[in-house]
Design goal:
Two copies of one chain form a homodimer.
Chain A (H helix, E strand, L loop, with lengths): L7 H13 L4 E2 L2 H4 L16 E3 L4 H14 L3 E4 L16 E4 L6 E5 L4 E4 L5 H8 L4 E2 L12 H7 L6 H4 L6 E7 L5 E5 L10 H5 L8 E8 L1 E2 L3 E9 L2 H13 L6 E6 H11 L9 E9 L1 H17 L4 E4 L3 H12 L1 H4 L6 E4 L2 E2 L5 H14 L3 E7 L4 E2 L1 E5 L4 H20 L18 H4 L2 H14 L35
Parallel strand pairs in A: 2-4, 3-4
Antiparallel strand pairs in A: 1-2, 5-6, 6-10, 7-11, 8-9, 8-10, 12-14, 12-15, 13-14, 13-18, 16-20, 17-19, 18-20
Helix pairs in contact in A: 1-3, 8-10, 8-13, 9-11, 13-14
Amino acid sequence: MSNNPPTRTGILVSRLQDIVGHEAVLTAKCDLAVYECDGYTIEKNQAEVVVFPSTTDQIVRIVKICNELQVPFLARGAGTSLAGGCVPVGGGVMIGLSRMKKILEVDYPNRFALVEPGVVNVWLSNQIKGNGFHYAPDPSSQGACTIGGNVATNSGGPHTLKYGVTVNHVIGVELVLPNGEIVTTGGAVEDMPGYDLSGVIVGSEGTFGVVSKAWVRLTRNPEAYRTLLGVFETVDAATNTISEIIGAGIIPAALELLDQLILGAVEQAFHFGFPLDAGAVLIMEVDGLNAGLDQEASKIEAIAHKNGAREVRRAATEAERLLLWKCRKQAFGAVGRLAPSYCTQDGVVPRTKLPEMLRFISGIATKYQLKIANVFHAGDGNLHPILLFDERDKDQLQRVLHASHEILDKCIELGGSVTGEHGIGVEKLDFMTKLFSADDLNMMIRLRDAFNPTNICSPNKMLPTAGACSESGMVSQTKPNRRAAL
Amino acid sequence: MSNNPPTRTGILVSRLQDIVGHEAVLTAKCDLAVYECDGYTIEKNQAEVVVFPSTTDQIVRIVKICNELQVPFLARGAGTSLAGGCVPVGGGVMIGLSRMKKILEVDYPNRFALVEPGVVNVWLSNQIKGNGFHYAPDPSSQGACTIGGNVATNSGGPHTLKYGVTVNHVIGVELVLPNGEIVTTGGAVEDMPGYDLSGVIVGSEGTFGVVSKAWVRLTRNPEAYRTLLGVFETVDAATNTISEIIGAGIIPAALELLDQLILGAVEQAFHFGFPLDAGAVLIMEVDGLNAGLDQEASKIEAIAHKNGAREVRRAATEAERLLLWKCRKQAFGAVGRLAPSYCTQDGVVPRTKLPEMLRFISGIATKYQLKIANVFHAGDGNLHPILLFDERDKDQLQRVLHASHEILDKCIELGGSVTGEHGIGVEKLDFMTKLFSADDLNMMIRLRDAFNPTNICSPNKMLPTAGACSESGMVSQTKPNRRAAL
């Protein structure tokens, strides 16, 4: 017989096709290219196969075949993550979850929804808003990112300050373990006994298996908002205002800072009417029962004025409020107007260190002759300095690398960390050894091994491999990248 | 030489004394008896030794000796837990944490405190109240229980409904692992990367090691309260009110139900002026900025009246408010006036199932000719039916056992669980197989093994051992018990 024996890839593809059908398996190079990276475009690799299951049972069968054939696999939502978490660094099978996009149940009296992982974040809020509810975690990418992806990265958003991050809104998950077993954690009732598996699965960046369903909380829409725009001569005045608002016991729904450089770009794009000569603006929102809000907004205004605000405007209409939020959420898109390339960093410092950290970033910009724009979740101390450059200029690129590295090291020095919400992924692996002791990291590895003992599920993510801590030269995570909008 | 070789206990005691000094090691039977059980007095066992370290380093050295000599160990806070979580079922070394009671740091601008595990819950709130802050989780035992114990059991309290349970207020821990390694998870900055170890350590009931420090959030005191007492003819009217308040989008700070039987006991004890002919009362508290509260309180009053409330009173003074809370928090103590013995159960049902569940409990009382009092965290659907009896009457005891079992089974049937806040401990081990699949339980065991691979730390707690699911007869967890005040 002239037939060649089938290749391993051939066997793999054929068996995956048996499960999901031919049209739900991609193998052509041009198709695989679509799935070779996420928003962190520096790190790319193609999967051997991309497969699109429609049910939990299909995920189980796919995972079991991967185990049988010893092929690594990983899940992918919308690919809007920003640290390479869904890059198939070791090849293998990518499990695309975009066909699992059903909102399976909405229970208003008990305030939860049961969703498949491919449900886009904003779809859920859109479906329930007529009943006066929303899904609280609101990353700027919420029009594209999926709830499964939000679970993997424990996504935040501008309203994280008051409402918490994804882990505060997920009350249970169904997880297909890397060996194909299904575990169900938590669920509709919030007080299940046993270890809090849901809590540790959220934010595990896909290294514990494939989340195939999630029970999420519904949050009642506030009765009213007051959305204020504070205009400051200097970044210092704005950051001092932040500390004083929080110190006064006010927890705004959101507290976002945009500096002069980003304001210019946003104003060009959206024509909101931002003062282009201001050093920084703060978007400050309070929400709740209408009766208390004017008092709270007045307190914020007084604090802003005391700290030297030139002007504090209130959004007069809902349309004005929504435009203000559009300016904020699409700020990263507007950065394209400032430079051909940009590198966004994601650092955290204790809130009281914000003035010092912003001054440090300003000094770094001078030292390396770079423009650095700032737009960030100020209330959380979560910075997103955006380093502007032209990637065709190798000298600029080197300066950006060094500047990024110094900024992240400073975050650690001030008692913070190197990621507030984008995760470790592949980008920041090497920083883990700066943040954690060997014992801490070993504990995390043992925890991963409890779920993923053979490391067949999304290998080489989140935790450094032994000896990965390099003392020499630049580490890969500070390479610049073109980022999707945050 | 006539000297006998030293016994293992002799070696153990001597080596522990070398670490902490003679006065911090107890071995006499009469001393050990103090530590033989917690609030679940049915299950008792004496440790071989009780040792009181003063530092993390001493805990590490104690744990290493236990490993060397292969003696099991477990930690104990104040012993106010209610499910036998700190009973040394296998003997060995009990590590009492009452000497580690320092509040090490209070950072108001960044809103956290760093405490040792033996700090009593209310001490922290007392220390910070002058600055306008408190520590939010407020179990009724807060005058005695420790923050270390709260971390172990993920304690709640009346204000859990709005403010969340312990896991929502612990941002980091230092944990001595069962092998003596120290891991530090989270810390002062909330957004640390890596797996959420803090989240999974909270509520692990001491099976992951010994928590030696905790970073906890400080919560700003609300500007004002409105505390309402709603008086209802029937339990049904009260539970319908609860559902409608939550359904209206109001999240009270607390929402507690007391039925007629418990009201009688509480009134005898504290003379608040409760109407003794009412079927049930609700304590309903809203808090926040003063400006919005009257509106919110009025909405609650309207809902209560719509559901047939005979009367809704507002606490007129802070003294009246505090007396009302004293009545609630010490209700379990007052139960001693009703019967020589009582058995408190701790079940959870979805909030919308409360009316059905309360009717079921009433039916159970009739069926088994028992008096059952109810006082509970109504807003969370967390029930505490109190079965009254005389333990000297074996027939009554049997009826209490059967009634308890039926109540917990009904909670499961309605989509709830068998513990809202007391934990599994040793009391409810056998129910785990009713709540979780074999795969779910195996995942929990693998998780425990990641922290505690040899199971030397608090063995035979929280997770059933293989084959522990008994089909025959009554299971031990439904044995009645004299409980400390909740």
